[in-house]
Amino acid sequence: MVTLTIDGIQVTVPPGTMILEAAAKAGIKIPTLCNSKRLIPFGACRVCVVQQKGRRGLMPACFNPVRNGMEILTNTPDIIKARKIQLQLILISHPLDCPVCDAGGQCELQNLVYEYGVSENSFKGEKANLATDHVSPFIERNLNRCILCGMCVRICDEVVGANEISFLNRGFKMKIGTDFDRPMNCEFCGQCVSVCPVGALNDRMFLHKARPWDMKETQTICGYCGVGCTLTVGTKNGRILRVRGDESRGVNQGTLCVKGRFGWEYVHSPERLTSPLIKKDGSFVKATWEEAIGLVVKRLKEIKSEKGGSAIAGLCSPRLTNEELYSYQKLMRGVLGTNHIDHAGGYSYAAPLALRESLGYAASTNSINEIRKADVIIALRSDLSETHPVIKSEGVLAVKRRKAKLIVVNSRNIYLNKFSAFNLLVKPGSEVALINGMMQAILQEGLAKEEFVSSRTEGIEALKQSLKNYSPEKVEALTGVSRASFVEAARLFAKAVGGVILISTGQASEKKDRDLALAASNLTLLTGQIGKENAGIFILGEKNNSQGALDMGLTPGWLPGYANLGNPSERERFEKSWKLSIPEQEGMGALSILQAAEEGKIAGLYIAGENPLVAYPDSSRTKKALAAVDFLVVQDCFLSETASLAQVVLPAASFVEKDGTFTNADRRVQQVRPGLYPPGQARPDLWIFQQLSKSLGYKLNDPSAKAVMDEIKNLVPLYGGIDYARLDNPLGLQWPCSSADHPGTPFLYEKDFPAGKGKFIPVEFEEGPAETESPWFLITGPTMVHSGSLSLMSPGLTRLQGESYVQVHPEDARKLGLEDNQKVILRSKQGQITVKTLVSWNAAPGLLFVPCHFGQVGGNCLTGRDLTITKVQLEKV
Amino acid sequence: MKQVIVGMATCGLSAGAQKVYEKFEEVIREKNLPVTLKETGCIGMCYREVLVELQDGDGQNYLYGEVTPERVGEIVESHLLQNKPLLPWVVRGPHPTEDDSFFVKQKRIVLRNCGHIDPNSIDASIHAGGYHALRKALLEYSPEKVIDEVTGSQLRGRGGAGFPTGVKWGFARRSAGDKKYVICNADEGDPGAFMDRSVLEGDPHSVIEGMIICGYAIGAKEGYIYVRAEYPKAIQRLRQAIAQAEERGFLGENILQTDFRFRIKIKEGAGAFVCGEETALIASIEGRRGNPRLRPPFPAVSGLWGKPTNINNVETFANIPWIILNGAEAFASLGTDDSKGTKVFALTGKIKRGGLVEVPMGITINEIIYDICSGMREGKQFKAVQMGGPSGGCIPALMGQIQIDYAQITKTGAIMGSGGMVVMDESTCMVDVAKFFLNFTQNESCGKCVFCRLGTKRMLEILERITEGKGKGSDLDLLEDLAQKVRETSLCGLGQTAPNPVLTTLRYFRQEYETHIFDRKCPAHVCSPLLTYTILPNCCTGCGRCAKSCPAQAISGERKEPHFIQPEQCVKCGRCFASCSFGAVFKD
Question: Which domains does chain B have, with CATH numbers?
Answer without folding.
Answer: 2-98 (3.40.30.10), 122-331 (3.40.50.11540), 342-425 (3.10.20.600), 430-519 (1.20.1440.230), 531-587 (3.30.70.20)
